[in-house]
């Protein structure tokens, strides 16, 4: 994990950079698709859903949620990705929903910088890394 400063523009620019965004999406999808069938089952998606950390923490300490409530939240999130309700998520569904979630997050952040703790392989960390590289290249 690392502490990073980002704003909505960091996320918007990452999503709009089709090459960087698609590479990240395809890599994450391939890592989640453990049986290599080109589809993500609920079990395969569960790790990704858990990484979203949808529950509050109190002063940085996780609060233990009710297991039933947690299962309901993960079921609902999976259904949001599974656009055609066939019980699996294909690459296009994964890409589309991830993009929507990232844009919603950016819209909610505004343009003031925010300091966040990010997992090293998260999409937000990839957005920050992309911005760092882009900034370095343009200043050289």
UniProtKB/TrEMBL annotation:
SUPFAM superfamilies associated with the record: EF-hand (SSF47473)
Tagged with keyword Cell inner membrane: no
Superkingdom, taxonomy of origin: Eukaryota
InterPro entries: EF-hand-dom_pair, EF_Hand_1_Ca_BS, EF_hand_dom
Coiled coil regions in record: none
An example molecular function term from Gene Ontology annotations: calcium ion binding
Alphabetical UniProt keywords: Calcium
Domain EF-hand: 69-104
Protein name per Swiss-Prot or TrEMBL: EF-hand domain-containing protein
Taxonomic lineage: Eukaryota, Viridiplantae, Streptophyta, Embryophyta, Tracheophyta
């Amino acid at each position: 994990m690392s502490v990073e400063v980002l704003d909505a523009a960091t996320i918007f620019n990452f999503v709009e950079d089709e090459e960087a965004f698609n590479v990240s999406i395809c890599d994450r999808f391939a890592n989640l698709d453990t049986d290599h069938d080109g589809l993500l089952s609920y079990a395969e998606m569960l790790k990704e859903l858990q990484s979203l950390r949808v529950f509050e923490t109190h002063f940085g300490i996780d609060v233990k949620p009710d297991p039933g409530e947690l299962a309901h939240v993960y079921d609902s999130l999976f259904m949001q990705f599974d656009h055609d309700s066939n019980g699996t998520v294909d690459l296009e569904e994964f890409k589309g929903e991830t993009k929507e979630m990232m844009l919603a997050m950016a819209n909610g952040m505004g343009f003031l910088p925010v300091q966040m703790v990010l997992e090293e392989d998260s999409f937000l960390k990839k957005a920050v890394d992309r911005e760092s590289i882009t900034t370095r290249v343009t200043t050289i």
